[in-house]
Amino acid sequence: MADITRRFGWRHLRSAPTAHIRHHKRGRLAHDGAGLSFWYRSLSAALSEVPVNDRELAMAFHARTADFQDVTVQATVTYRISDPAEAAARLDFSVDPDSGAWRGAPLEQIATLLTETAQQHTLDVLARTPLAGALVDGVATVRERVAAGLADEPRLPATGIEVVAVRVVAIRPEAEVERALRTPAREQIQQEADRATYERRAVAVERERTIAENELASQIELARREEQLVEQRGTNTRREAEENAAADGVRAEAEAARKVRLARAEAESAREVGAARAESQAAWLRVHGEVEAATLHALAATRLAENLPRIDSLTLSPDVLTGLLTKLGRPAPDTRA
């Protein structure tokens, strides 16, 4: 909408670059173009504002397929007014010279024209297409048909309207039908999921079996090695016992030999000691045999005295002393004094 200001009974209009302004003054065209700015009097001015930019028109309508299924079509048409003079002549784009607002609804008329035309061509296509085909290839088919139909529509160029692009967003059936159509795919997906689950479980079971077999093989190998270890320990123990027995035998033999040698040495020593004693005894006897009896008696007494306990005093009677001295060949003492 153009900007209009008031100054001393005059009006000043300033339009946007995307708005085409047509100013008629007393039936004659005074200004014609986009992005204009000028002064005018409201009582003698007739103004029209035609937008020349691209506009998006979203539309949604129902259609019926060949198998009598209701579908909803969502589409968008991009259009622009290529000939503002024709559009202003065919549609009411006049604006209030005081406020700049449209007096009619020209864009709604264009929207109705485009929507009905697109709907007509869409119905023609879907009426000959079953639901499955409409859902699979219907978007491209409807888009091509609507674009061709709008291009061939004679009212659009006569009104100065040019269709830039046509887009069909979606073709959707009713909610119940859509759920029913989704059921086979969902069941198939669920079956695939179940199959994947079963395969995963089978793989898991196979892996668990492999792990169990590996553990069992490890236990068997461990038991076999333990058996070898026990056998080796028994062999080592038996060998150690044999070695100890052999060592004990060697030690016993050495000890016996040592004892034999010791006994022989002791016997030899005893023989030599005995011989020495015999020789000493024989010499002793020879010496004693050559000595007088009195000497032997004296030696005997000496030996006896050596073996007797200590005697501090000895009292001898005269008779005993006389007899002893007589035997020794000494004169008897005089006892009369």
Short recap of the structure:
Helix content is 58%, strand content 21%. By secondary structure, the protein is of the alpha+beta class. This is SPFH domain-containing protein.
Helix and strand arrangement:
Elements: E1 3-7, E2 10-14, E3 19-25, E4 28-34, E5 37-40, E6 45-51, E7 55-64, E8 70-81, H1 84-90, E9 94-95, H2 106-126, H3 131-152, H4 155-158, E10 161-173, H5 175-290, H6 293-307, H7 318-328
Antiparallel strand pairs: 1-2, 2-5, 3-4, 3-6, 6-9, 7-8, 8-10
Helix pairs in contact: 2-3
The run of helices and strands is: EEEEEEEEHEHHHEHHH
Into which percent range does the helicity of residues fall? Answer: 55-70%
State the secondary-structure class.
alpha+beta
Task: Name the assembly state.
Answer: single chain
* Regions with little confidence, pLDDT below 50 for 5+ residues: none
